[in-house]
Amino acid sequence: MYHDEAADAVLKTLDTSETGLSSGEAENRLEKYGKNELKEEEKTSAVKLFLSQFKSFLILILIVAALFSAFLGELVDALVILFTVFLAGVLGFVQEYRAEESIKLLKSLTSPEALVVRDGKEVKVPSSLLVPGDILILQAGDRIPADARLLEAQSLKIDESSLTGESVPVEKSIKILLPETPQPDRKNMAYTGTSVTYGRGKAVITATGMSTAFGKLAGLLGEIERERTPLQEKLDQFGRWLGAATLIVVAFVAVLGIFKGFDPFEMFLWGVALAVAAIPEALPAVVTVGLALGVRRMVKRHALVRKLPSVETLGSTNIICTDKTGTLTQNKMTVEKVYVNGTMLSVTGNGYEPVGDFFKEGQPVSEDIHLHKLLVTGALCNDAGLVEEEGIGDIIGDPTEGALVVAAAKKGIWRPDLELGHRRIGEVPFSSERKMMTTLNASEEGLYAYSKGAPEVILGCCTKIFLGGQEKELTPEIRKEILDTVNEMANQTLRVMGFAYRQVPENIVPENAEREMVFAGLMGMRDPPREEVKVAIATCTDAGIRTVMITGDHKTTAFAIAREIGIYREGDLVLTGTELDALGDKEFEDMVEKVSVYARVYPEHKLKVVNALKKKGYIVAMTGDGVNDAPALKAADMGIAMGITGTEVSKEASSMILTDDNFASIVSAVEEGRNILKNIKNFIAYGLTCHIGVVLIVLVGVLAWQILPVIAVQILWINLITDGLPPMALSLEAPDRGLMKQKPRKSTEGLVSRRMLIASLGLGALIAVQSLGVLSWALEEGMPLPKIQTLIFTLVVISLMFNAFNWRSDRLSVFSLGIFTNWPLIYAILSTVLLQLAAIYVPVLQTAFRTVPLSLSDWGMIIPLASTTLIVMEVVKYLERRAHR
Question: Residue 369 in contact with residue 469, Cβ under 8 Å?
Fold first, then answer.
């Protein structure tokens, strides 16, 4: 809209003129359109957020169990269960209390004041009071306060990287464009939140507030609901499965007992005991603490997770959609090649650091008059500045010009010092029509013109070339050789510029200086990839994770970078935003798995890609740093924002922030996420062994002997001490060898695999068989019931301590890992054993848990029986490894 109309027609449509609106008309329009601000959405109240923590099916079952326990007089059981539930809720609430601040932060990108024409005069007004029809004056350094159609553009360049992802400032014009021109290519428009890097201009405001491009992004953020993570879904599935199984078992026992003549109330009591045995009431808290401990480790690896359950999502991720500019690349234009004196030189150094050198065939170039002349030309025909902040080099002005200043500095040519002896007295500014810029600089040697621009344009102004230490005739053969070199450099995705100079008369008109010039050479620059990115992407590939580039940059540049760093592979597809628009949803979904590069895209495209991949069942991570990335970051399963260069909007829309902006840190984060998921699964399997064993013991004891082998308070004690410290210690287990060589777990895979479930069932059955064997033997020996219950109670606890070693890894032997390589687990097991000894030998606790002291002969039976849980699992792991080999 407006980009396909002439400037006069736009002014007429908006009922304004180049003399601006009157103050009265501006006030009327402010009432009609509202302030130039982004609206906030209503936030979820703290109370609702807290209550939402208790929607889990598992939590609801625990609350019901607590109420039944209280009803039956088991107040201690009820209080312990409710306290555990409350603790889990508080931990979740604290993590999610941070409200979505995306729209507030979008507002902060709006310029506080703007220079406009009102009542025929240039005046500064608060940007919130701007209205459609206002005439906006644009100057270098200004941040654009509203969407506008350009009326004048004098060498105007605007940095739109925060909106489109385009790494190079866009040269603007006032030409009419075709209606179908996509947003990133609308060179006659200026958009909110972008900034002027060069030149000046005038524009008429066409949209304010929520009607701007930024406003639409804010609307997209508001429309997107952050989906529940796979871990949350799996925990709920696990809770529903466990709850349903518990209710079936309880109903079966109660009905069967009543048929056998037992008192219905007594059977209900046993049913509650079974429910307490089956339900891992500490699981939500343990999972939360396990995630929190993992998050602390991730911070040390430069990954800050904003929502705990997102950790598991990262571990399951199988596609990473990444922006190019600033994420895969350094976001710093750098001169990499120089063509001078008929020779190609390579340039070393990173970004805007003035450190590096020039090499010819691997040998450093020392003093060279041709290179010196070229670098001086690039530094003088330039408006950029080089600064150092806290020891880090940076530039002020246009990135392309900044790259030239840095290149000169690498040879000790500093623009401020150079200009002291080469005072600028005139210039012909750059324009899209001319495609070149020229300055006139006075020195002791006379007045010189220095030009830079498109190579073919510069060559067209030249009749000579500085070659072999002399100014020689620029022959057709030499001209062709230069143009061939330009094409060769362009094919390497370099942005090529030509340079020329000429000594001119003192009274020359600047425009007349651009003729009969001397060709000085070429410089090729680009935004280079980060050094560590190639290795990081290769590691992702080994881990079964595809990397997809989604960028606002041009197709050729995006393709070349993707091929260089290993994202693009033979047979992959490259799509532009325009090509993507031409595809129907179904057609695109059929081919989305084949596309590795998307170029010239804008926010809606990124959302479309993420959503199509999610429909295919992928767990999608999206990296980004700009405002344009925020909707896709929020829609992705795992949004990863850049901590240093990232906008606050992108950070708030994300699930995780990279504190060092290093793509390679994603690999570390993925490994940590996988390890956290592995540890969660392992301690859930460990806990299942406990609950399965206790359920079988109670069930068979009631049905076969009509007694409770362990009472309800002992069952709760077993749950609390075995589901407490050991699982938390298991969550600290280091990654298994080869963890990053494994493929990502499928999103459809349950929280506990069939293999782990069978192992838990087997170990639980082993504990039950041993306990019931002790029960049978003790009854034959005529032991009193409290002694029998104490024996079984202790056997179960000690068996589970041996079982804890089993689940440090589901496939590696504890002896290959090293018994003492997880000291927190050693301390947890020792602490649990001491607590169990206290429950047996401390008089007050004996009364509470109805236990009696055990003799040394009793321990002589318990320890060997309990150790079989570790021995049996070690044998199974050995046989599995042998079969696998």
Answer: yes
Give me 785's structure tokens: 């019931």
* Residue bearing tokens 């109420």: 67
Pick the closest to residue 735 from 658, 664, 817 (CA basis): 817
- In three-state secondary structure terms, 870 is helix
Question: What type of residue sits at position 579?
Answer: E
Nearest partner of 277 among 682, 679, 702, judged by Cα = 702
Q: Hey, what are 613's tokens?
A: 């991949």
Structure-token pair, residue 587 = 């057609």
310 is written with which tokens?
């997102």
642-663 per-position pLDDT tens digit: 877 666 567 767 888 888 777 7
Q: What is the pLDDT of residue 275?
A: 67
What per-residue confidence (pLDDT) applies to 74?
A: 65
pLDDT at 251: 77
CA 197 to CA 161: how far, in whole Å? 12
Per-residue confidence (pLDDT) for residue 233, from 0 to 100 = 66
Q: What are phi and psi of 356, to 5 degrees?
A: 155, 180
525 CB-near residues (< 8 Å, 6+ apart)? 333, 334, 335, 336, 400, 403, 404, 494, 495, 497
Q: Is 689 helix (H, G, I), strand (E, B) or coil?
A: helix
Q: What is the pLDDT of residues 790-809, one digit of tens each?
A: 999 999 999 999 999 999 99
pLDDT at 100: 38
> In the 8-state DSSP scheme, what is residue 398?
-
Count the Cβ atoms, other than its own, within 10 Å of residue 116. Answer: 25
Backbone φ, ψ for residue 322 (5° rounding): -125, 140
Map tokens 């150092």 to a residue: 388
Residue 858 falls in the annotated catalytic set = no
3-state secondary structure of 205: strand
Q: What is the pLDDT of residues 101-112, one digit of tens each?
A: 333 443 444 346
680 to 248, 283, 331, 727: CA distances (angstroms): 26, 10, 38, 8
Task: Please report which confidence band the pLDDT of residue 68 belongs to, taking 50, 70 and 90 as the band edges.
Answer: confident
Angle, helix 785-806 to helix 664-705, in steps of 10 degrees: 160
pLDDT over 60 (residue 225): no
Cα of first residue to Cα of last residue in the chain, in angstroms, is 65
Q: Which of 13, 339, 333 is nearest to 204 (CA)?
A: 13
Catalytic residue from among 323, 398, 629, 637: 323
Strand order in the sheet with 656-658: 303-305, 656-658, 638-642, 620-624, 319-322, 546-550, 595-599, 573-576
Count of Cβ atoms closer than 10 Å to residue 726 Cβ: 27
Q: Are 170 and 189 in contact (CB under 8 A)?
A: no
Contact 191, 159 (CB under 8 A): no
String of DSSP letters for 573-640: EEEEHHHHHTS-HHHHHHHGGGEEEEES--HHHHHHHHHHHHHTT--EEEEE-SGGGHHHHHHSSEEE
The encoded tokens of residue 795 equal 């056997």
For 450, phi and psi rounded to 5 degrees? -125, 130
Residue 719 falls in which region: left (phi positive, over 0), alpha (psi -120 to 50) or beta: alpha
In sequence order, the β-bridge partners of residue 388 are 393
Amino acid at 303: A
Residue of 344, 436, 432, 403 whose CA lies nearest to 525: 403
Q: Which residue from 140, 164, 131, 169 is spatially nearest to 16, judged by alpha carbons?
A: 131
Nearest-angstrom CA–CA distance, 370 and 705: 101
| Under 8 Å between Cβ of 578 and 600 | yes
Cα 785 to Cα 851: distance, rounded to the nearest angstrom = 10
Rg (CA), the chain: 36
Task: Specify whether the CB–CB gap between 320 and 546 falls below 8 A.
Answer: yes
Q: Which domains does the chain have, with CATH numbers?
A: 7-40+104-223 (2.70.150.10), 229-291+669-733+749-884 (1.20.1110.10), 312-329+531-661 (3.40.50.1000), 334-526 (3.40.1110.10)
| The two structure tokens encoding residue 22 | 């009157």
Amino acid sitting at position 748: T
